[in-house]
Amino acid sequence: MRAPESTEGLDGNAAAGVLSEMFAFEASRAEVVCGGCGAVAPIGRLAAYGLEMGAVLRCRECDTALLCVGVTGRTRSLVMRGAAVLRYRVGDSPSSLSRSRA
Ligand SMILES: [Zn+2]
């Protein structure tokens, strides 16, 4: 049996590649699993509030705040405290979606 590769001494830069891939998807089609009740819904179907300086996206089943998106000048922030999981299918990138819509 092969020993697992050591990750000692690595920092967040080691995950930059997969994180770049993760944040290059069509967000409205990604699914969120609610940390409050376990409901699963695409981001595009969550209830949205306060769109002026960002958004709070809430679970339609239990009203838990799943995603809070902040917009301050050139800074963007994302709080996912209420979301248990954010998931998407590989290949659902914006470029592949625009091709499939054509
Ligand atoms: Zn919920």
Give an overview of the whole structure.
- This protein has one domain (18-90).
- With 102 residues, it is of the alpha+beta class.
- The protein contains two helices and seven strands.
- Strands 3-4-5-6 form a four-stranded antiparallel sheet, with no helix packed on it. It has a three-stranded antiparallel sheet with strand order 2-1-7, with no helix packed on it.
- It has helices at residues 16-22, 94-101; strands at 31-34, 40-42, 47-49, 54-58, 65-72, 75-79, 83-87.
Can you give keywords for this protein?
102 residues, alpha+beta, four-stranded antiparallel β-sheet, three-stranded antiparallel β-sheet, 2 helices, 7 strands, disordered C terminus, binds zinc ion
State the strand order across the main sheet.
Answer: 3-4-5-6
- Which distinct ligands sit in these coordinates? zinc ion
Principal-axis shape equals globular
Helix share bin: 10-25%
Q: What is the number of beta strands?
A: 7
How would a textbook summarize the main sheet? 4 strands, antiparallel
Work out the strand percent: 25-35%
What structural class results from the helix and strand content? alpha+beta
Report mean pLDDT, rounded to a whole number: 82
Query: Low-confidence spans: pLDDT under 50, at least 5 residues?
Result: 96-102
Q: Helical stretch count?
A: 2
The separation of the N and C termini measures 49 Å
Q: Output the helix-strand order.
A: HEEEEEEEH
**CA radius of gyration:** 16 Å
Tell me the domain tally: 1
